[in-house]
Amino acid sequence: MTAKIIDGKKIASDLLLDIKKEISDRENDGIRKPCLAVILIGDNPASEVYVRNKKIACEKVGIKSISIDLKNDVSENEVLTLVNKLNNDPEVDGILVQSPLPKQVNEDLVIDAISPLKDVDGFHPTNIGLLAIKKPRLRSCTPYGVIKMLKTLNINLAGMRATVVGASNNVGRPMALELLLENCTVTICNSKTVDLQTKVGQAELVVVAAGIKNIVMGEWIKQGAIVIDIGINRVDGKLVGDVEFSVAKEKASYITPVPGGVGPMTVATLMENTLLAQKLS
Length: 281
Ligand code: GUN
What we know:
Blueprint: E1 4-5, H1 8-28, E2 35-41, H2 45-61, E3 64-70, H3 76-87, E4 94-97, H4 107-113, H5 125-132, H6 141-152, E5 161-165, H7 172-181, E6 185-189, H8 196-201, E7 205-208, E8 226-229, E9 233-235, E10 238-240, H9 245-248, E11 254-255, H10 262-280
Parallel strand pairs: 1-11, 2-3, 2-4, 5-6, 5-7, 7-8, 8-11
Antiparallel strand pairs: 9-10
The site of guanine has 8 residues, from strand 4.
C-alpha cells in the first residue's frame, strides 16, 4: 500500500478561509476584529520564522496582531508585568509568548500568568484540565489541529488504537487527551518506554511528537495505519520529521509530510482559538 499524503497546507488554507469569513461577518455586525498579542523574546531564528508565519496568518484572516519584541536579557518580572497588562487590556483577545524562553524566565510561571481566557496556545493548566475532563475550551493548537485534519478526511477515530510517541506538556499529553476525547484507546510513549516498536506496530493511528529524527522506523508501521508526524528536525539545512517517511509511506494508508503536514494546521487553529477567545471575552 502507498499512503495518501495528507495536504496540511490545503486543509489549513480552507480553514483560514472559513475563519476569515466568520470574522468578516462579525465585522458587518459591528464587532471589531479579534486581536492577538505576540511576545517574542530574543533572536532565536526558528522562533522568528514561527512568529512571522503566525502574523502572516493573522493578516490573511483579518486578525489584528500586536508584536512585542523583548531583548534576550529581559527579566522574568518584566515579562510577567507585560502579561498582566495584556490580561487587563480589553482590546487584546489572545496572548502568545513564543517559546523557548531565555533561562532567566520560567516558562511555567509565564504560562500560569496568562489569563486562561486569553491563552490561545491552550497551554494553561486550566485549559489542559478542561480538556482532561471532556470540557475543552481553548485547546492546544497542534493536537487540536491534528484532530481537525483527521476529521476533514472523514476518518472515524472511535475505537482506534492510537499510539502517541512523546509526552511533552504542549504536544504529546494534550494530543493523548484529544484522542481519548475521540474515544481512541490511547498508548502514550515516553523516553523510557520499553519496546517502542511493539507499541507503534499495534496502532491503527500513530502520532509522533518526539523531536528525534527517525525515532519511528517505517517498517514498524502496521499495514494501513494512519501516521501523523509532528516532529520538525533540521538536517543538513532541510526539515524532516520524526518518522522514516520513505518506508512508512509504503505501509500507511495516510501520512503527513514534513514540512506541509501538521505545521500549517497549528497556525490555523491558533487563528481559530483567537476568534474563540474574543467570543469568550
Ligand atoms: N514554540 C514552538 N511552538 C510553539 C507554539 O505553538 N506556541 C508557543 N507559544 N511557542 C512555541
